[in-house]
Amino acid sequence: xxxxxxxxxGGLSGLVAGLRLIKKQxxxxxxxxxxxxxxxSSGSFGLLGSVDGHLVESPVDAMGSLxxxxxxxxxxxxxxASLVAEVKGFFADAGIKLKGDAGRNSSRVTPxxxxxxxxxxxxxxxxxxxxxxxxxxxxINFKGFLDFYPDFLGAKLEAxxxxxxxxxxxxxxxxxLRKQTELRASIIGRTLKDADIAKLASQINAxxxxxxxxxVPAVIGYTSDKHFxxxxxxxxxxxxxxxxxxxxxxxxxxxxMLRRRFEQLGGTYFLGDQVSDGHFAHDGRLESxxxxxxxxxxxxxxxxxxxxxxxxxHGLVAEPKKVIEPIFGLDVEVPSDHxxxxxxxxxxxxxxxxxxxxxxxxxxxxxxxxPVVNLYxxxxxxxxxxxxxxxxxxxxxILTALNAADIIAK
Length: 410
Prior knowledge:
By secondary structure, this protein is α/β, with parallel strands linked by helices. The chain has helices at residues 12-23, 59-62, 71-75, 77-84, 87-93, 128-131, 150-159, 172-180, 185-191, 194-207, 226-234, 249-264, 387-390, 393-409; strands spanning 2-8, 28-32, 44-45, 50-51, 54-55, 98-100, 106-109, 115-118, 120-122, 136-142, 163-169, 213-217, 239-242, 268-271, 275-280, 286-291, 299-306, 317-318, 323-324, 332-333, 356-357, 366-367, 370-371, 375-377. Strands 1, 2, 14, 15, 16, 17 and 24 form a seven-stranded mixed β-sheet that branches. Helix 1 links the parallel strand 1 and strand 2. Helix 1 (12-23) packs parallel to helix 12 (249-264), helix 1 runs parallel beside helix 14 and helix 10 (194-207) packs parallel to helix 11 (226-234).
């Protein structure tokens, strides 16, 4: 089988790259093991929330102060800004509605009621802006659902001067689930039907009579935002979702909607398959790949995108004395002194968080010191930044994926 481009990894960066290329009339295949970092999504994307421990107000402006090795610096501030401007429209094309602006970070509300910087947030999720000037809030939970924390959330809101009412809802569908299995967000999200949404709305209206806003756990809308929009239409006051502990229903929804749009436009999505090796030509180009499921049937492409992630996605694997890229044996930028990998202070910034593939200025990974010129590394496979410390993981994933797709398309 032959494609114009093959994307290895079906998470956020892989789907963004694949969708960008398919829109440019390329024949594209995406290989995905299934679960990705999107399944742990908070409902928000971070572009750049913090630099050197200081909160960032304008993420695009702050890109100019980043080290030269940072992916944003390597993209160039102006180019990164031009890509940023396209992101909301890009996701809207897949039916994913986002609010926010790169000119000013907003604040998302965590499951414990804390505020964290956010670039873009799903339209149905709550931000600090949505709570501004609201005097009374009703927090809804489902009986027996333990992955949502109304007491912590309510305490933070009360400390901020808001009056909080907490209510527990009983739905027959969820009660039936609770007797059969663990009550998890993903299970609830897959199970709720139109009739359940109508019953839920009726109960919310009964307990939130004098409230200005209602917050519910993010368990509604497994494959689209239809059910949440239906709930909003039936409730008498504004309703917003708050993230639960993983698995993330909103992350699964985004992955489903991006994949659906990719396939609608003609892309091929191989779910549950793993790339096992690659064959390199004499000039160093990646010629073909093999996968576990396809066996001896190799797949060929003009270009490849490596979107397998970092340590979390097993795109990088730490061994006792080295860090490896497990598919192609690509070069990894890592100190030879193992003592420099970690800080013994558990709460300190950990050096290994910024490890990644060695690449040239176009994000071609190096193999034995030489760039593989038809292979592009994107997202968490790259080094030079700390996604957790900076709150920049989604931004790097999206922008580097768009950049790689644009280079390939040219």
